[in-house]
């Protein structure tokens, strides 16, 4: 039979594994979202370390396609 100390240790390890899994899944989502820009950044750093001062371009952001969201018009759809 397990003691309370062993049960608490097992519970702590389980919680740690769940938190680690959530962080890993979130990291994968972030990398997929901004992957090309991260790749361009690493390429620029690699070129700088190699002695080639060439900057690699990532994705360009079109400000017209990016919508700023707020709660200003939240109640208009409820009428």
Overview of the molecule:
It is a single chain. The termini are far apart. The protein is built from two helices and no strands. The chain has helices spanning 4-33, 35-50. It is mainly α and 79 residues long. The protein is flat and about 60 Å long.
Q: In what range is the share of β-strand residues? A: under 5%
Query: In terms of quaternary structure, what is this?
Result: single chain
What is the residue-mean pLDDT, rounded to a whole number?
78
Number of helices: 2
Task: Write a brief structural summary.
This protein has 79 residues and is mainly α. The protein has 2 helices and no strands.
What structural keywords apply?
79 residues, 58% helix
Record the SSE blueprint.
Blueprint: H1 4-33, H2 35-50
């Amino acid at each position: 039979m397990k003691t309370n100390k062993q049960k608490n240790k097992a519970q702590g390890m389980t919680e740690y594994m769940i938190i680690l899994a959530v962080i890993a899944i979130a990291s994968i989502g972030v990398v997929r979202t901004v992957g090309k820009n991260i790749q361009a950044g690493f390429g620029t750093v690699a070129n700088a370390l190699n002695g080639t001062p060439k900057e690699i371009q990532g994705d360009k952001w079109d400000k017209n396609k990016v919508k700023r969201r707020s709660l200003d018009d939240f109640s208009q759809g409820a009428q």
